[in-house]
Write a structure and sequence with these properties.
The protein contains 15 helices and 17 strands. It has 438 residues and is an alpha/beta fold. The strands form 2 sheets. Strands 1, 2, 3, 4, 5, 14, 15, 16 and 17 form a 9-stranded mixed β-sheet that branches. An 8-stranded parallel β-sheet has the order 6-7-8-9-10-11-12-13. A hairpin with a 2-residue loop joins strand 16 and strand 17. Helix 4 packs parallel to helix 5 and helix 12 packs across helix 14.
């Protein structure tokens, strides 16, 4: 067989069920899928291929999966830092969105986000925002893989001036993008249980269920939210969502910080998933999610960056490092959230959290060829005793050299091939000047 691409001369971290690590590995790709993943004997010739990629001793691994983003919010990076969540949201972000978010700005911000993610090794994102049709257009152009959720909220929002149209708008988005590309899966994104009524939440869940799609929702994010739901619903946010039938295996709980033991038991029982966003949670002082307890209960937890207005970057390598260290110091236990656990959260478990685990998240024959190569020929990456530990505690997004999604090379030698980055940067700089003045 003549393969489309063969990658060789690298150390492979498969993140398969046995967590196999292959030195001097070879990855063979045909029609967008992984066919052979194996060690190369010194005297054995390389398999025949249309293109041979030399990893130059670097790390070959699955592309990273970002389970929570608001892609167009790259436009508000650093706009309102060091503020409490509700002040940040109500006095800065919502007004800025009202003034500056439109079809063109959403496409621009989403393209900038896709460029940032691809250049730092993320090959899949799970996004939730408004005007998501324009987000999807940008994501499609970039070549990145995405679960994309049209935003639902009981207030006037970009693209949905009449809140009574929120579900209709979400369904229109789903109908338009369902089946357009194997790389784009539509979704519904409910902002939160305090910005969406019970009726809206139920209708949004019914809409996503009608197509077997993911429902995303911010929940149990802050103490203020927890107190508000307790006051209004006389229970916790998770118990409230469970009571009205929102939680099941196709529900992604974003943040999940203010959880008690019963909440965790409910999430595990309903097989709902959780997106952990440690840097955003820390920056907004929302709290520390009980991720070790969730994992011990068998809950699938993926890793997310959140939007650039509250993080302020989309680098999952930094997020992995933070996730590992935060829980160690919080529990005063250096053994929790070990490197393998965190790498799984950013790859295989992240894929499972958004319903893609049969297709991506690990390097195994039959799966999609979502592959990245990390350049390890740098002072901060030498010496390397444990490659998994290196990925979590040492590597950075800027160390990623090559990126492919479904066997299509999107980044080669740190150069984007699908996006005119110079043009995007110039246009964003111009727009940010306008935002700053206003």
């Amino acid at each position: 067989m003549v393969f489309d691409i063969v990658i060789h001369n690298g150390l492979i971290i498969t993140v398969n069920s046995d967590f196999d690590i292959i030195e001097n590995g070879v990855v063979c790709i045909k029609k967008g899928k992984l066919h052979r993943i194996e060690a190369r004997a010194d005297d054995k010739p390389l398999p025949e291929a249309e293109e041979i990629i030399d990893a130059n001793g670097g790390i070959i691994m699955p592309g990273l999966v970002n389970t929570h983003t608001h892609l167009p919010m790259t436009l508000f990076r650093g706009l309102a830092d060091d503020l409490p969540l509700f002040v940040w949201l109500n006095e800065y972000i919502f007004p800025a969105e009202g003034k500056h978010i439109n079809s063109e700005s959403v496409k621009l911000g989403a393209l900038l986000a896709c460029a940032e993610m691809l250049l730092s090794g993320t090959t899949t994102c799970c996004d939730g925002y408004f005007l998501e049709d324009d987000v999807a257009s940008a994501v499609y152009k970039s070549g990145i893989r995405g679960v994309l959720g049209q935003g639902v909220i009981d207030f006037p929002a970009p693209g949905v001036p009449d809140p009574s149209d929120n579900i209709k708008n979400a369904m229109a988005f789903i109908e338009k993008w369902d089946g357009v590309s194997s790389l784009i899966i539509p979704s519904v994104f409910c902002h939160s249980p305090y910005t969406c009524s019970e009726e809206t939440l139920k209708k949004a869940k019914a809409a996503s269920d009608s197509k077997g799609l993911l429902l995303q929702i911010h929940a149990a994010e802050t103490k203020s939210e927890y107190i508000r739901i307790q006051t209004e619903q006389h229970t916790t946010p998770v118990k409230y969502l469970d009571r009205i039938g929102i939680l099941d295996e196709n529900t992604l709980i974003v943040h999940g910080i203010w959880l008690d033991d019963d909440d965790i038991e409910i999430i595990a029982k309903r097989r709902s998933k959780v997106s952990h966003n440690p840097e955003s949670n820390m920056k907004l002082a929302s709290g520390i999610a009980p991720v070790p307890s969730l994992l011990n209960a068998g809950v699938t937890v993926g890793l997310g960056t959140d939007g650039c207005a509250s993080n302020n970057d989309l680098d999952l390598f930094r997020e992995m490092d933070t996730a590992a260290k935060l829980h160690k110091v919080n529990l005063l236990d250096p053994t929790v959230m070990d490197a393998r656990t965190v790498l799984k959260m950013a790859t295989r478990d992240g894929a499972k959290a958004i319903g893609f685990d049969k297709h991506i998240g690990s390097l195994e024959p039959g799966k999609q060829a979502d592959v990245i190569i990390v350049d390890t020929d740098k002072p901060h990456l030498v010496p390397m005793y444990n490659p998994v530990s290196h990925i979590i505690y040492t590597a950075q997004g800027s160390d990623v050299r090559d990126v492919m999604v479904a066997g299509r090379i999107l980044v080669r030698n740190k150069n984007l091939l699908t996006i005119d980055l110079k043009d995007i940067l110039e246009r964003v700089a111009q727009l940010s000047g306008t935002i700053k003045k206003k």
